[in-house]
Write a structure and sequence with these properties.
The protein is α/β, with parallel strands linked by helices. It has 16 helices and 17 strands. The strands form four sheets. Strands 2-1-3-8-7-6 form a six-stranded mixed beta sheet, sandwiched between helices. Strand 10 and strand 11 form a beta hairpin.
């Protein structure tokens, strides 16, 4: 199966100066990877016609697919479609179906009068295929050149995602995909990338040439992704399934889930499927564990609530940590997190609880309690487990490692209690 290459171009001055973080490229790359398209390059450029044309020349020199986001809005700095029109040798025309859609949105949805800038959203190059944008006023535009395609999409993330799913992926599959692509991903925790690689090196060295292994580390976790390409769907799927089962056996002591889902969702599903509930008492993570759990829909079924107790006062008054313990052992101590976890479990009447307290940095360290020192406690109605950890990163990474470690500790306790997914 021949590889098909794609280039992603993001357009906008706001991306280059860091005012807006580019999440579109990551989403597009993941979506293309799942259907077997190889990302050759990602290019970020300003709202400048010459830059756009140069980026297109570069992209078409090595890619069959060019996907662009940004610069399709109604303001003067949005010049993408005009630049594309010139590049592909077209002239600008008023596209009546798009105009009708824009009129409908303003009259029926927004309940606002249209102005000339809004009408300009329906002006497109005459040599493109217009892809309707149900989620906004700016349509996507597709151009073809020497059996290659260029599709420009709005930079608004939820509009871009809708267009990718409704139009772009099916177009690409129809035009370029002739074989079958399979991916299998698992999540590990509690082992570093290099040690994981050493653990599976013999198996990895003997992988069939049609299967590729990727290591995807992040904050104390490592995802392992197997990818396979081939002409026959059954053969590809059987081969990757066989290797995936071997991989699962090799990493069984660190395996979190044999699927491509985040740890917080694994924990949430474990709670949900076993009809259990969770409460949190957080100091150094500032509510981030609760936030991670509640990011996903349906969290109210399993998450009762959380207490962010940053000060001695709140630890004492809300979580009933004795002042004597705080004054003698300190907030970052085994005794403190044990009181925190037991009392939030009782306070919110849940099956399980997590408590964390630590020194995230860059300040706050002492001779006895260095930067990155964290105490984590987990509990059910019968047991409390408290452990000390020493992370050695910056503040953000210390917090993220604390979140991951705490959730994984609870996951292991639940499995020991007989909970299953």
């Amino acid at each position: 199966m021949n590889k098909i290459y794609a280039t992603i171009i993001t357009i906008g001055d706001e991306l280059l100066i860091g005012q807006v973080i580019d999440t579109n490229s990551a989403y597009i790359a993941q979506a293309l990877n799942k259907i077997g398209i190889v990302i050759k390059q990602r290019i970020a450029i300003a709202d400048d016609e010459n830059d756009i044309h140069q980026a297109l020349d570069t992209a078409f020199s090595h890619s069959s697919i060019v996907l662009i986001t940004g610069g399709l809005g109604p303001t003067a700095d949005d010049i993408t479609k005009q630049s594309l029109g010139k590049y592909f040798g077209g002239k600008m025309i008023l596209h009546q179906p798009t105009l009708a859609h824009v009129q409908y949105l303003f009259e029926q949805v927004f309940k606002k009068p249209m102005i000339e800038r809004n009408v300009q959203q329906a002006v497109v190059p005459d040599n493109c295929v217009v892809l309707k944008n149900e989620k906004g006023t700016a349509p996507a535009l597709m151009f073809e050149k020497e059996n290659k395609i260029c599709i420009a999409m709005p930079g608004v993330p939820f509009e871009m995602k809708w267009i990718m799913q409704e139009h772009v992926l099916s177009i690409i599959q129809e035009k370029f995909i002739t074989g079958f692509v399979a991916h299998k991903t698992l999540l590990t925790a509690g082992i570093g990338e290099s040690f994981l690689a050493e653990l599976i090196k013999d198996w990895e060295n003997n992988l069939p040439p049609t299967i590729k292994l990727a290591y995807l580390p992040k904050f104390g976790m490592v995802r392992l992704r197997l990818s396979s390409f081939g002409e026959n769907q059954v053969t590809v799927q059987e081969l990757i399934n066989h290797e995936f089962e071997q991989l699962k056996t090799l990493v069984k002591d660190y395996l979190v889930i044999d699927d491509d889902i985040p740890l917080e969702l694994v924990l949430s599903e474990l709670l949900r499927k076993n009809n259990k509930t969770l409460a949190t008492a957080e100091s150094c993570t500032g509510g981030s564990i609760a936030s991670a759990i509640t990011t996903h829909a349906g969290a109210s079924d399993i998450f009762s609530g959380g207490v962010v107790s940053y000060s001695y006062y709140s630890k004492n008054k809300i979580l009933q940590v004795p002042n004597e313990v705080l004054n003698t052992q300190g907030a970052v101590s085994k005794e403190t997190v044990e009181y925190m976890v037991k009392n939030v479990l009782t306070l919110l009447n849940t099956d399980y609880a997590i408590a964390v307290s630590g020194i995230m940095g860059p300040g706050g360290a002492t001779k006895d309690k260095p930067l990155g020192l964290v105490w984590i406690a987990i509990a059910n109605k019968e047991n409390v487990i408290a452990k000390q950890f020493q992370f050695k990163y910056d503040r953000e990474r210390n917090i993220q490692h604390t979140i991951v470690t705490a959730m994984n500790m609870l996951r292991k306790l639940m499995i020991e209690d007989g909970c299953t997914l």
